[in-house]
Structures are given as C-alpha cells and as structure tokens.
Design a protein that fits this description.
686 residues, 24 helices, disordered N terminus, four-stranded mixed sheet
C-alpha cells in the first residue's frame, strides 16, 4: 500500500512564515531557564537527571542541543546549499596544498606504502584476528602514530588530505590497521588535545603518542549510544580537590585493549560552586582500578582491538581535564568535525580496490561469447562503481582541503561525506560481489587454495558494514545534518513553535521570521542556474552546475514548505529529513566532481568523463528522492511499526527457532570492582 502525503513536489510560494522544528531561544533574547540556550550559556551543562541514566525526552534534547557549536563565524558551502544559495566561490577554484607540505607528505607516503607492501600480511591479520606486535613497531618507527600531531611535539604534522591518503593506503592492506590509526588520531587523545588542550597537557602527552603509544576514545556505554544525556559514568571530585574518581563501564572502545592513554567522558555532579556536567578526561590506561573485561568481536575488522572497560575508583588528577568541566560533549562533537573524515578515507580506498577487482575480472571473465563487462547488466554496475568512487574521492579531498585551509566551517560538509561515503561504499562492495558471482561470496583463502587470485570481496563487504554505524549511524547523521541545515530558521523563528514560549516571545519571533522570509523567499524563485550560458567556464559540465543551482533552490523551497506545514511535528518527520539531507549530499558531490575535474583536466582529461557520468547518475537519484519527499509510505510505515511493536503480527514469527529469551537485550551492570579477568594487551618494546 502507498500513500501520497502531498501532490506539490516543488512549492515555490507558500503563504505565511510557518515555523521550523526545534526548541531554542531566539538569538537576541535572554534564554529562559532550562532552555537549550540557557544550557549553552551555562557552558554546556543544563538540568541533568538526579539518577544517571534516567532522562526525559526534553532533557535529552537539551543536552544534545547544548553540545552543538552554535556560532557560524566562518562560511560553509554546505549550509548555504541547504538555504538555496549555491556559493560556488567557496570551493572554486579548487583549493591547493602548500607545495612544501606536499613534498614532505609524499616522502612519508612513499615509505609508508613500501613498508605496508613488504612487511604487513593483511591476510594473516584477518586469519589471526590480531595485528602483530611487529606491525605496531614498524608503524611507530615510521611515525604513523603521529601523523596528525604537530612536528614540535614529535609528530609528522601531516595535512588532513595526506593523513586521509595514508589511512586509505593502510586500509587497503587491512582495514583494521586503518581503524587502529584513525581511532588513535581522529577521535583519540591527539585531536581533542590539539584543539582544546592546555600547553602543559600537549607537552606531557603528545610526544608519547607521536612516539607510538596508542590512544582510545571512551564515550559509549552498555545502554548509552547516541543519547549522551543518559551517560552514567561518574567523575566524583575528591575531598582534597586534587582530582576525580571515575566509576562506570564503557563499551566498544576501539583500541581499548592496547591503549595506554584514554579520552574518557564522564559526568561530574553539579554542586555549590561547581558547574559539573559531562566532562572529558585524559586517563592513563594502566591506572589502578581500570579493567579491560572483554575484547569484543565483530563480523568484520577482525584485527580491531575493541574493549569493554570498567572503571572502579580510578583517580584522575584535575590537570587531566580537557577544556573544563561540562565541555565534554562539545569537545567530542567539535573533534568529529574533522575526525569524521577518516572513515570516508577508508571508504574511498575500498571503492578504488573494488574498481580494480571488478574491472580486471569483468574484462577477463567470458560468458555467452563476450567478456561479462560488456553485457549491459554488468556494465551498469561497473559504471556505478567507477563514477561513485570518483564522487566519493572528490568530496573527501575537497573537505580535507577546506579543513586544512581553516577558513571554512566544514561541520556540514564533513558529516555529508561521512554519510555519503559510508552508504555508497557499502553499495559498491555489494555490486562487486554480484559481479564476481559465486567467487565474490567465497573467501580469499578458499580461492587461493585452488589456485585463483585471492580477491577478498566478502571481507571488504564485512569490513565496510560498520562505517554506516561508526561515529554516527546513518540515521543519526541524517538528523544531525538536518538540524544544522535548518539552523538559520531556528535562529529567527524557534519560539513560534516552542510550547514554553509566552505570547510576547512568540510575537517577537513572528516579526523576526516575517522579516527574514520576506528577504529570503524571493531569492528562491530565480537564479543563475536558469541562464543558458551560466557557468560556461566549466565547459561540458556547465549544465550540471546549472542543475545544482536550480535544485538547491528547489530543495530550500521544499524544506520551507515542510516546516510551514508540519511546524513542531517536523522533528518527527525523520524520513522526510533524511531525503532532504540525501539530496544535499548529492548536490555537494556534484559540485565537488565538477570543480575538481575542471581543475585537473590538463593532467587527467578523462576525469571530465567520470564527472559527467557521476552527475548523470546523481541527477536520477535526486529525482527519485524529490518524488519520495511527497509520495511515500512514511505515515503508513509508522502506523504499522506501532502495531508490530505491540505484537499484533507476532504470529508471523512462528515456525522458526528464535534467540533464547533468558538474557536481556542490553546487559545490566553495577558499579564496583571488576570480577572479570583483565584482557588488556601491551605491546612489548621493539
């Protein structure tokens, strides 16, 4: 059954300002007590539950809202795109790296690649589910653990672009190595210290990390994932004021079994004269009271050192607080603005690897008298893999270059490339297995045993799957990006739909909204993309950029119409918001490939063909997404889900053996000393 929610796919003119989703105070009013704005004004700490782990929906939203970066003090191509403003000048001409930095980075990448090829057995890591000690030593000698650490602290000081290229190279040998280096530097101790650490903290910890010590980031708990307001790990100030005592359990800490330095998020209780709140700490991994209770195992990334970690009365000196009490979530989210670039780097590497295997196999394998790649059904898959890999790489390189420039706010762009690359790389791997047929489903060892090339397609599918969950699941990324995309609307009209706002505040918000939309809406009617000769300097790609400009305005009109229609209910229209974000991601990708292809046409004229191919495919996906905005089964699906949850269709589950119900879905834990054997792993000296 299908349902059509509205027959207007492109609402160009809608009467009334309406109101966007969200509950934040207007930017020029004093925030009300307990509001998200008040939380932020208080340094990121709002009214938290008296019992850890028990929060209302409103409290959870307040904590999440407070952790956002509220200011937009630098330009953002992505933000403007969602507002219907195609600011091509923010990414064109294609940014360039400093030649001296490039030369230094290329020297390292050459040595790094040679070491990986000669000394690292990726297949053995997969078989043994373990990165050997010797690989840790080799990576340390090369300086790979200090790629993002400044040179004055003993690191290599690589740019984001070259760091991501190193991760891509490492992941192509074995993705667990890429994950080790990424978790250590992108979200582990180096990045938050680089951004928020004191000079003393940097001097104390960064040289150790650059020299080869491993770090990990510990936020997730057994019952706390994307809802940090329920964080239950506590950091109680000691009576003498010298530090804190940590108590709690952390789940899924990548590198947790081998890390000697940890970033731990814990809740400091509020008290008289103490703001408290979720706080980031640097914790020595061998501190008394820390127990690594398990090394977790997964369907992919078999070499990953991922832990379940317990803290019992672990002392942390006050000098190890990063950024101040109550700043933990904001530090985590700010760190992820560039930290998220590491995952798409490995997705791009997977795309390149898949393209190589698919191309060579499809040219060599003959069926029905022709190479399989010449049959249209397979040809379309090859075209998708090639075009999409080029699109992912263009988005990633652009984001890295913008981050290195540091004159742009890339929070939306980084989130978009993480979302897009994780989804598309999974599809690429799935298509590769289909092209390979039965051999795609077969393990590399089995292929090699009978004398065939050991192309581990099934492994890459397993290894890639986690990227749609790591560092923000696809569903959470949709909501995070959607929130940022409508930030301009919330700044002027949030009080209109706020149930706690009085009539006076609603009236003032209405006046601000009226003035804002009176200026903004007319800009969405006509634009440069309607001029036949616009963007002529892009030659054969000009038409695609005109399409991006027109579609950006159409997307903004659709978003405005939805806000005016659903108002406060829009925050629950997650499927709609997801499609809006996906359209924006495609538009960002189209922009990136066009600008890159023109910039590189002298060296790589063939990339004009790839850019054109990608844009043609993306335009079809965009058309489908726009149709889905207004013609979908969303409301029917939600109603059906309520009946499913209530057990109405439980009879459908009969006739099979289901998991035993003698254990909870989420394991309960109690504070106290560990009763498990410590399974930490320490790398012996070289």
């Amino acid at each position: 059954m299908t349902t059509t929610q509205n027959s207007r796919p492109d609402p160009a003119n809608v009467p009334g300002a309406g109101g966007p989703t969200g509950r934040v105070a207007p930017i020029d009013d004093a925030p009300r007590p307990g509001s998200a704005a008040a939380v932020d004004a208080a340094g990121g700490v709002g009214p938290l539950p008296t019992e850890a782990g028990q929060v209302s929906e409103k409290e959870a939203r307040q904590v999440a809202e407070a952790a956002r970066e509220a200011a937009w003090d630098r330009p953002s191509f992505g933000k403007e795109l969602f507002l219907g403003r195609f600011r091509l000048d923010l990414i064109n001409p294609w940014p360039r790296s400093d030649p001296a930095d490039v030369a230094r980075a290329e020297e390292f990448l050459g040595a790094f690649g040679a070491y990986l090829d000669a000394e690292v057995d990726g297949a053995a890591i997969e078989r043994d589910a373990r990165i050997p000690d010797e690989v840790f030593h080799g990576l340390s000698r090369l300086g790979a653990f200090g790629m993002k650490i400044d040179r004055k602290y003993g690191g290599l000081g690589l740019s984001n672009l070259h760091y991501c290229r190193a991760l891509m190279r490492a992941g192509s040998v074995n993705p667990a190595i890429g994950a080790l280096l990424s978790a250590h530097q992108s979200i582990g101790v180096p990045q938050p210290l680089k951004m928020f650490g004191t000079p003393e903290q940097k001097q104390r910890f960064l040289p150790r990390l650059a020299a080869g010590e491993v770090s990990a980031f510990l936020l997730t708990e057994p019952d706390v994932g994307s809802d940090p307001a329920r964080l239950a790990t506590t950091a109680e100030p000691t009576a003498d004021g010298t530090g804190y005592q940590l108590n709690g359990v952390k789940l899924w800490a990548t590198n947790g079994t081998v890390a000697t330095l940890l970033v731990v998020m814990a809740r400091v209780p509020a008290a008289e004269g103490r703001r408290g709140g979720i706080t980031a700490f640097v914790v020595e991994g061998d501190s008394e009271g820390i127990t690594i209770e398990r090394r977790n195992a997964f369907i992919g990334l078999r070499g990953l050192e991922n832990s379940l970690t317990r803290f019992h009365d672990v002392f942390v000196p006050k000098e190890n607080v990063i950024g101040g009490e109550g700043k933990g979530l904001k530090i985590a989210l700010t760190t992820l603005n560039t930290g998220r670039l590491s995952l798409p780097a490995m997705c791009v590497g997977a795309g390149k690897w898949s393209l190589n295997v698919a191309r060579e196999w499809a040219a060599d394998r003959v069926q029905w008298g022709r190479p399989v790649g010449e049959h249209e059904a397979v040809a379309k898959k090859l075209a998708f893999i090639a075009a999409t890999t080029y699109g992912m790489e263009s988005m990633l390189d652009l984001c890295c270059l913008l981050a290195d420039d540091d004159r742009n706010d890339i929070r939306i762009e980084a989130a978009l490339v993480k979302l897009y690359a994780s989804e598309m790389a999974w599809k690429i791997a799935d298509e590769l297995i289909q092209i390979r047929g039965g051999r795609g489903y077969e393990t590399a060892d089995s292929l090699a045993a009978r004398g065939e090339r050991p192309a581990a397609a099934e492994q890459i599918l397993r290894d890639l799957r986690i990227n749609r969950i790591f560092e923000g699941s696809t569903e959470i990324m949709h909501l995070l990006i959607a929130r940022e995309a409508v930030d301009a609307h919330l700044s002027v009209a949030g009080d209109i739909i706020d149930p706690d706002a009085g009539l006076g505040r609603k009236a003032r918000a209405g006046a601000r909204a009226g003035a804002f939309y009176a200026r903004w809406l007319p800009t969405l009617a006509v634009g440069k993309g309607q001029a036949p000769g616009a963007y002529h300097e892009f030659g054969p790609l000009a038409g695609h950029l005109r399409h991006v400009e027109r579609t950006s305005r159409k997307l903004a009109r659709s978003t405005f119409y939805a806000m005016s229609r659903w108002q406060g209910k829009m925050e629950r229209k997650q499927a709609f918001l997801g499609r809006v974000v996906d359209i924006g991601a495609e538009l960002f990708a189209m922009s990136a490939v066009c600008v890159r292809a023109i910039a590189e046409r002298a060296e790589h004229p063939e990339n004009l063909e790839l850019a054109d191919l990608f844009c043609r495919q993306a335009r079809l996906r965009i058309d489908e997404l726009f149709t889905g905005l207004w013609s979908n089964t969303d409301s029917v699906d939600v109603a059906a889900a309520k009946r499913i949850l209530a057990g109405r269709y439980a009879s459908l589950e009969e006739g099979v053996a289901t998991p035993p119900a003698d254990r909870p879905w989420v394991a309960r834990w109690q504070p106290g000393p560990s009763t498990a054997q410590d399974v930490r792993r320490r790398i012996p000296p070289a």
